[in-house]
Amino acid sequence: MTLAELFPTHTGLAEFCASAGFFSDTRVSQLSGGLSNNNYLLGETRVLRVNRNLDSLGSGRVNEIKAWETAAGKGLAPALYDVSKGYEYYLSQYLSDGCPDKQEMQQISAEQLSRALLESCGDRVKEQSISSHMHALLELMLGLGRLPLPEYRIDASKQWQTYQQALLGVRASATAPLCRAIDTLLARQVQVSDWITSMESAQKGLEIFCHRDLNPLNLLRADDRLMAIDFEYACQSGPLNELATVLATHKLNHDEVCWLCHHYLTGIGLVDWKPQQVLASVNTYWVFSCCWALLQSAAKGDSTLPWFEEFYQLLPRVC
C-alpha cells in the first residue's frame, strides 16, 4: 500500500512524513502491530511507528523517548530520527534482520523454571554449550543496565500497590467473571508480598536502567549485536525485574537459564543471589502479567479474560 492510505485515519501524519521527505506515493508495509502501537516500513530505510495511548501504568511517552535516545546513543537501540509534537508518530532506523531463532515467545511456568534453577544452577555450566545469541543477549542486558538512570522510577512493591488499587477500582463495575478473576488473584496477596520481599532482599537497593519488556519480539539484530526496541516501560528499577522478563519469555534451556542468571547478576553487581530469589522475581512477573490482563479485560470486555487464565496457570499452584 502507499502512505496516502494511512492519512485519512491519522491526523497530522501527512505533515509529519512530508517533513522527513516521505509523501503520499511512498510505499508502506506493516511490520508489526500491538495494543499500544503499529509499526510500518516506510520506503526502505525508516520505520514509522503510530502510537496509541498508554494506560496509566506505563511510563509515558516523554520518558520513553529519553530512554530510547539514551540507549541508541550507546548502540543498544535503533536510531530515533524524529518524533511528532504530540508523540503520535516516531521515525526510526530500520533493521532488516530480526532474531529468527528466538523470535517466538515461550512462556515459562514457575514449575519449569524451578527445575532449571534449583536442579541445574549448582552445576558448572560449560561455556561451549552457550550460543552466540545468548552472548549477544547478555551483552545487551548488561549494556542497558549500565546506562544512566531514567527519571521514571518504580519498584516491584510500588507496582504491586498500583495494580491492586487499579483492580479494586474497576471491580465495582466489573462483570461477574471479571470479579471472580480479580478476587482469585488478590487472594494471593500475602504470597505475592513474600515474593517481592525475596526480590528486594536479593537486590539490596540496587537500581539500574531497566527496559522491562525484553521479550524476543522487542529484539532486533544488527550484525553480531542485539538491539532493543519499544521503551514504553523503561525505568530505573532493580535488575531482577529485567532478568525475570527474559527468563519468562525466551526459549532457554536449563544451561542457558543458569548461565544467564550467573553472568547477568554478577555482572550487574549482585554476587550472592539465590535461585529462590530469581524464581520469586519470575513469579512476580507473571502476577503483574495477570494484573495487566485483568485491566485489559475491564477496558476491552471479557473476551480478553483468557489472557488472565493463561498467565495465572504459570504461577505456582496454591497449596
Radius of gyration: 20 Å
Q: Share of helix among residues? A: 40-55%
Sequence of strands across the biggest β-sheet: 1-2-3-5-4
Order of helices and strands: HEEEHEEHHHHHEEEEHHHH
Distance from N terminus to C terminus (CA atoms, Å) equals 55 Å
Secondary-structure topology with pairs:
Blueprint: H1 13-19, E1 28-33, E2 37-42, E3 46-51, H2 61-73, E4 80-83, E5 89-93, H3 110-120, H4 132-145, H5 156-171, H6 176-186, H7 189-203, E6 208-210, E7 219-222, E8 225-228, E9 235-237, H8 239-249, H9 254-268, H10 275-300, H11 305-312
Antiparallel strand pairs: 1-2, 2-3, 3-5, 4-5, 6-9, 7-8
Provide a descriptive summary of the structure in words.
The protein has helices at 13-19, 61-73, 110-120, 132-145, 156-171, 176-186, 189-203, 239-249, 254-268, 275-300, 305-312, and strands spanning 28-33, 37-42, 46-51, 80-83, 89-93, 208-210, 219-222, 225-228, 235-237. It is 46% helix and 13% strand. The radius of gyration is 20 Å and the shape is globular. Helix 5 runs antiparallel to helix 6 (176-186), helix 5 (156-171) runs parallel beside helix 10 and helix 7 crosses helix 10 (275-300). A 5-stranded antiparallel sheet has the order 1-2-3-5-4, covered by helices on one side. A two-stranded antiparallel sheet has the order 6-9. Residues 28-248 form the Aminoglycoside phosphotransferase domain.
Concise summary:
Pfam families: APH. With 319 residues, the protein is α+β, with helices and mostly antiparallel strands.
